């Protein structure tokens, strides 16, 4: 019993975990949510598919075997016990009972038997009479349903466990172990999944599978997660998603979502149209179709691919589709863009003008991965529209360099037209060595040293261009190190070195400003204001971090055709009926065990004295009883019964009576 309670407690805890923790989700989702350490711990315990993990099924099988053995061993005896009145009880054994009493009566034996049977009838006992060796035994019992409660309780457990095993993946795992079904681990279209990884419709065992169907599309399979892959469960009907609806709270969280489904039976052609929502499934021929999630169904994207290296500042207008890939080559290396998701709303907390936190919608975004030729990938989340921060608008690009890492953001300032054109043109100028050298030469020509002309002027221009290149490629800190190195080589006095250092930075600043001014002039901007100066400072901040961005291009999404998909969970649970039946049996059995008392009473009537003609002058009456529960209620019930029997049978010597009703 202790072992059974311990195992049932483990199953209860595991079931709670299986309810709280979403089951059979992609491993990457668990890895991102829990981190590498706890991901491995939970994976080792099998908590991502707890109802089918080996130890869970083993406990079910053990409890099934032990409970069945207990039931087989004890049920026949209990059933015989219900039918038996135990008419062979002897005087000595009755007097040894914890509840036993004896007295004398002058009434004839037949009268005592008659009144005893009547009293038993009033109390709801069934009684039998047996005469033997000059004595009469009246045996009675009631509450036999208590014993049936024992049988029902254990049988209910067996039925529940069988139902649970029917709906578990033990059937699938057995087929896989026998080689009948193969687990597919590759991400393939349904049409390309091998036949040995398909399950026919109408299998005896239950299953729980999932499928994502875009709006306007249909599907007739469900994917069942098994081991480190999946198998395909063919369905006897087609599911078409006619439309998908979703509502959001002000925080951007989903408020409700539902799907308009059209189900067509493949065999009969029967058509059912129904709208499903969370906890309100479509039920058909033992199958349940639940609304479980939603996602992107292949949103069509338009974007500009701005080059950050090579021909920096140039763009190419391209198209893409969520859940699909497109490849490109850059400097002889192959890259792959994997568009993974599209989000129409991105509501985030921001600080308002009054200092209070408010929810701001950043607009739509697209999530994609850029994978290089070696297979290394960086995940990006780029927004369509510039987002306002403290009066300045930025184009955002969230960067996640590796799985589980914290997302970081690249802020590119938007120009007067809320576009990337000005920044990209300015960045292209900074990356153009010849253009920077020209600007530097023009600035040098305006200085006293520039009057020398010739090689000295060219050398100075190239030196300045080198510093600008260092700033653009490696950042301000590396530029400082380069200047310090050059000053150390000249072995200048500290005062002159400080002046030279400040002069170097001013020259670089002047070249950068001249490049920016020329960029604005090429765009037709004539008036240079405070906003332009602020843009210049923000742009320089971005330029210094682009080398660490990790991508040779900047994906700037410009347009989309939003297509959603609904996540459906398709289940078939033939074991559910048995689980419900077993639960009913278990409930009834426990009720019978706790509230129905299985009690037995015996009244033995023996001659105590004989006349000259061998007739008894009086009788000794032994009353005994037992209760399977041995509770205090029976103490009172036995005392009341024996007192009433003594009264009705006319005991003439109660002082001679021996009572021990309190031993139990």
Number of strands: 27
Mean pLDDT: 87
Secondary-structure-derived class: alpha+beta
Percent strand: 25-35%
Helix segment tally: 15
Topology:
Elements: H1 2-20, H2 27-45, H3 54-83, H4 91-95, E1 99-105, H5 109-122, E2 126-132, E3 135-142, H6 145-166, H7 170-177, E4 198-199, E5 207-214, E6 218-226, E7 229-248, E8 254-265, E9 271-277, E10 282-284, E11 287-296, E12 300-307, E13 315-321, E14 325-330, E15 333-343, E16 347-351, E17 357-361, E18 365-371, E19 377-383, E20 387-389, E21 392-400, E22 408-413, H8 421-431, H9 433-445, H10 454-474, H11 476-490, H12 494-522, H13 530-545, E23 553-561, E24 564-572, H14 575-595, E25 599-610, E26 616-627, H15 632-648, E27 658-659
Parallel strand pairs: 4-7
Antiparallel strand pairs: 1-26, 1-27, 2-3, 3-25, 5-24, 6-7, 7-8, 8-9, 10-11, 11-24, 12-13, 12-23, 14-15, 15-18, 16-17, 18-19, 19-21, 20-21, 21-22, 25-26
Helix pairs in contact: 1-3, 3-6, 5-15, 6-14, 8-12, 9-10, 9-12, 10-11, 10-12
Could you explain how this protein is built, in words?
The chain has 664 residues and is an alpha+beta fold. Helices cover 39% and strands 32% of the residues. The protein is built from 15 helices and 27 strands. The longest helix has 30 residues, at 54-83. It is elongated. It starts with a helix and ends in a 5-residue tail after the last strand. Residues 653-664 have low confidence and may be disordered.
């Amino acid at each position: 019993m202790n072992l059974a309670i311990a195992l049932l407690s483990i199953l209860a805890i595991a079931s709670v975990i299986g309810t709280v923790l979403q089951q059979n989700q992609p491993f990457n989702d668990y890895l991102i949510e829990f981190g590498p350490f706890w991901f491995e711990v939970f994976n080792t315990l099998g908590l991502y598919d707890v109802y089918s993990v080996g130890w869970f099924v083993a406990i079910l099988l053990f409890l099934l075997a032990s409970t069945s053995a207990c039931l087989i061993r004890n049920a026949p005896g209990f059933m015989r016990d219900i039918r038996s009145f135990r008419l062979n009880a002897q005087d000595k054994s009755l007097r040894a009972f914890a509840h036993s009493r004896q007295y004398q009566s002058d009434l004839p034996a037949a009268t005592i038997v008659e009144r005893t049977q009547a009293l038993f009838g009033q109390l709801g006992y069934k009684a039998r009479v047996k005469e033997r060796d000059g004595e009469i035994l009246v045996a009675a019992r009631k509450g036999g349903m208590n014993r049936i409660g024992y049988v029902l309780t254990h049988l209910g457990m067996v039925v529940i466990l069988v139902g649970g095993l029917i709906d578990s993946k033990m059937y699938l795992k057995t087929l896989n172990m026998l080689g009948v079904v193969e687990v597919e681990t590759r991400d393939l279209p349904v049409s390309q999944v091998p036949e040995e990884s398909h399950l026919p419709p109408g299998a005896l065992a239950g299953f729980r599978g999932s499928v994502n169907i875009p709006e306007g599309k249909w599907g007739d399979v469900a994917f069942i997660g098994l081991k480190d892959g999946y198998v395909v469960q063919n369905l006897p009907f087609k599911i078409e998603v006619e439309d998908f609806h979703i509502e959001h709270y002000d925080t951007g969280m989903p408020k409700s979502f539902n799907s308009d489904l059209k189900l067509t039976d493949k065999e009969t052609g029967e058509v059912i149209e129904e709208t499903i929502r969370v906890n309100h499934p479509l039920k058909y021929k033992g199958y349940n179709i639940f609304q479980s999630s939603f996602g992107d169904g292949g949103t069509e994207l338009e974007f500009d691919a701005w080059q950050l290296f090579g021909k920096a500042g140039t763009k190419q207008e391209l198209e893409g589709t969520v859940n699909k890939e497109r490849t490109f080559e850059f400097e002889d290396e192959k890259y792959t863009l994997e568009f993974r998701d599209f989000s129409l709303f991105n509501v985030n907390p921001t600080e308002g003008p009054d200092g209070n936190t408010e929810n701001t919608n950043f607009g739509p975004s697209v999530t994609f991965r850029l994978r290089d030729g070696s297979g290394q990938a960086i995940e990006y989340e780029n927004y369509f529209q510039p987002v306002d921060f403290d009066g300045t608008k930025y184009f955002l690009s969230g960067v996640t360099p590796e799985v589980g890492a914290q997302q970081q953001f690249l802020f590119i300032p938007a120009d007067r037209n809320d576009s990337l054109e000005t920044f990209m043109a300015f960045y292209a100028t900074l990356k153009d060595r010849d253009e920077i050298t020209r600007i530097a030469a023009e600035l040098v020509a305006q200085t006293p040293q520039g009057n020398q002309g010739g090689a000295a002027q060219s050398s100075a221009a190239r030196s300045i261009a080198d510093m600008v290149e260092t700033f653009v490629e490696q950042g301000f800190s590396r530029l400082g190190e380069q200047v310090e190195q050059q000053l150390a080589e000249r072995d200048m006095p500290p005062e002159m070195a400080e002046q030279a250092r400040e002069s170097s930075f001013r020259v670089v600043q002047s070249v950068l400003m001249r490049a920016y001014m020329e960029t604005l002039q090429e765009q037709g901007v004539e008036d240079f204001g405070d906003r332009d100066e602020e843009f210049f400072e923000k742009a320089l901040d971005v330029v210094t971090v682009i080398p660490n961005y990790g991508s040779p291009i900047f994906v700037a999404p410009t347009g989309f055709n939003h297509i959603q998909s609904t996540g459906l969970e398709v289940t078939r649970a033939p074991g559910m009926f048995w689980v419900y039946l077993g639960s009913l049996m278990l409930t009834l059995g426990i009720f019978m065990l706790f509230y129905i008392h299985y009690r037995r009473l015996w009244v033995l009537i023996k001659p105590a004295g004989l006349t000259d003609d061998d007739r008894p002058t009086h009788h000794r009456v032994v009353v005994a009883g037992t209760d399977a529960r041995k509770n205090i209620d029976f103490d009172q019930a036995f005392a009341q019964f024996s007192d009433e029997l003594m009264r009705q049978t006319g005991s003439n010597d109660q002082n001679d009576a021996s009572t021990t009703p309190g031993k139990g």
